[in-house]
Amino acid sequence: MRRGILLGWIFGAGSLLAACTTISSHYYSLADLPALEAAPVVSAGKASYGLQVQVLGVPAEVDRSQLLVRDPARGPAVEVLNQSLWAAPLVDQIQALLAGRVSADLGAPDVRRLPGLTDLPIRQMQVRVTRFDLVWGQGADLAATWTDRMPEARESRICQAQVRVAAAQGVAALVDAQRQALQVLAGLMARQGTSANPGSPDSQVSVQSGCT
Fold first, then answer.
1. HEC states along 73-109?
2. Percentage of the chain exceeding pLDDT 70
3. Least confident segment among 50-54, 179-183, 202-206
4. Cα Rg for the chain, rounded, in angstroms?
5. What is the DSSP letter of 39?
6. Interval 110-145: pLDDT, tens
């Protein structure tokens, strides 16, 4: 009888300890929800073309559900945050943010959100993200190349950009910095690589971009 009570106590204590040590997961999104809610879908209206934005890929090391963070103090080492997860596949989130922003900036309807636009010529933008870094104590680094083919153009314009956004310590701050970097990239895509505001020396955002 005593042995049964002892085993029951040990099992119960072990279960309680396991429950107390369980770490819950946190999910993060790159979506700019206030902007998405405030900006209506651009309709065909008087638009001269429809817009198609496609993200071809991101660096393989960050193409995972867990957030990956670089630590300058540990050199090339990276840290995989198993309890900090993306709310949706990274490529899908980046594509949704870029397409929504570029569509709004250009006043051109996003053909992925309005698939019935068969009568409009299509402006195609294909993006490849070559750097997508979250860095402890520094912020977010983003680099991308993209092609921009106007309707009926014989050749695509090739552009590239590097964006750095400073951020305070913390996972949420790093995600917000990367969201800002993507918003800057979307603005550059709409302006064909031309930066409207290169920033001041003390700016939290630095940009390098251009097209050929």
1. HHCCCEEEEEEEEECCCHHHHHHHHHHHHHHHHHCCC
2. 76
3. 202-206
4. 22
5. S
6. 988 876 666 889 999 999 999 999 999 999 999 999
DSSP label at residue 145: E
pLDDT digits (tens, 9 = 90+) for 36-59: 544 555 655 677 899 999 999 999
Residue 22: both structure tokens together? 């369980």
C-alpha distances in angstroms, 205 versus 109, 141, 142, 188, 201?
29, 10, 11, 13, 9
**What is the pTM assigned to this prediction?**
0.82
- Tokens representing 33 are 């929800």
Reported residue count of the chain is 212
Looking up tokens 């879908």 gives 41
CA–CA dist 78, 61 (Å, integer): 10
Provide the pLDDT for residue 153: 85
The alpha-helical segments, DSSP class H, found in the chain are 2-21, 33-38, 90-106, 171-190
Query: What token pair was written down for 152?
Result: 């009926």
- Is there a contact between 54 and 122 (Cβ–Cβ < 8 Å)? no
Q: What is each CA distance from 105 to 23, 51, 145, 146, 192, in whole angstroms?
A: 41, 11, 19, 17, 12
Distance between first and last Cα of the chain: 83
Contact yes or no for 177/159 (Cβ under 8 A): no
